Amino acid sequence: MDESAIRIDSGLVDLTNVPLDALDAFDDEVLAPSVERLLRQVDQASSSVAGSQPS
Q1: What's the whole-model pTM score?
Q2: Per residue in 15-54, pLDDT tens?
Q3: Rounded to an integer, what distance in angstroms lies between the CA atom of residue 47 and that of residue 42?
Q4: Rounded to an integer, what distance in angstroms lies between the CA atom of residue 49 and that of residue 20?
Q5: Which residues contact 52 (CB under 8 A, 6 or more apart)?
Q6: Residues whose CB falls within 8 Å of the CB of residue 15, separated by 6 or more in sequence, listed in order
Q7: Residue whose C-alpha is closest to residue 37's, from 12, 3, 6, 20
C-alpha cells in the first residue's frame, strides 16, 4: 500500500490546495471549528508529542 495515499482523519478542514490569499473568501462558520480545535491542540502541545519529556 502506498503510504502517501493513507488518509488521516484529523477533523480539520483540508486546505492542501488552497492558496493563503484565498482564505479570506471562506466563511468564518466553515473555518471556526478547525481553528478552535487547532488552538486547543497547540495549547496542549506537550501532551500531543509522543515520547516528549520536559527537560
Answers
A1: 0.46
A2: 888 898 888 888 788 788 888 888 888 887 665 555 555 5
A3: 10
A4: 27
A5: 46
A6: 23
A7: 12
